[in-house]
Amino acid sequence: MKVIFNGGHFCKKGLIKKLFAKALELTNNEVEDLIVSVKFVSKEEIQKLNNNIRGVDKVTDVLSFPMLEIKQGEHLKDFDSEREPDGWLNLGDIALCVDKAKQQAKEYGNSYKREIAFLALHGFLHLLGYDHIEKEDEKKMMSLAENVLANFNIKRG
User: Fold this and answer.
1) What is the rounded distance in angstroms from the CA atom of residue 57 to the CA atom of residue 37?
2) Exposure check for the chain: N or C terminus, fewer CB within 10 A?
3) Under 8 Å CB-to-CB from 106, ≥6 apart: which residues?
4) Is the pTM of this model over 0.90?
């Protein structure tokens, strides 16, 4: 898997790659030549994205822009026909607001590392088709996220 990072000076890029790899393993989605991008953005940039894409004119913590129409429970191996001519399977893009992550870390009593890890993983799970619209889906998504984070001893508080 190739993760392209843009913006920010966050030093835990290796951890984010490992979190994504573990999520792929736990969801039976390990495929060759998968690509995803993660961009660290300001409050102003994420608010602009949120407004332009979702029509919500407010700051948010993370946004996901999937390139595949994958649903929870489907597998990436079934999307080989969506590969780029160079063989890469583009999962999509994640925009993560570092200012919001810092604010939420303080609010929730978490470390900045934990908040960034959780938000990056949350965005990644959206790219894999997970959502939290329905309560049952939210439970599945949060349980999976906590399971992935626990593998790296990343805990709340």
Assistant:
1) 24
2) C
3) none
4) yes
SS3 123: helix
Partner residues linked to 95 by β-bridges = 39, 63
Superfamily of domain 2-150: Metalloproteases ("zincins"), catalytic domain (3.40.390.30)
Counting residues of the chain whose pLDDT is more than 70, the rounded percentage is 97
Judged by DSSP in three states, 27 sits in coil
Which of 9-18, 85-94, 102-111, 148-157 shows the lowest mean pLDDT across its residues?
A: 9-18
Domain spans of the chain, in order of start:
2-150
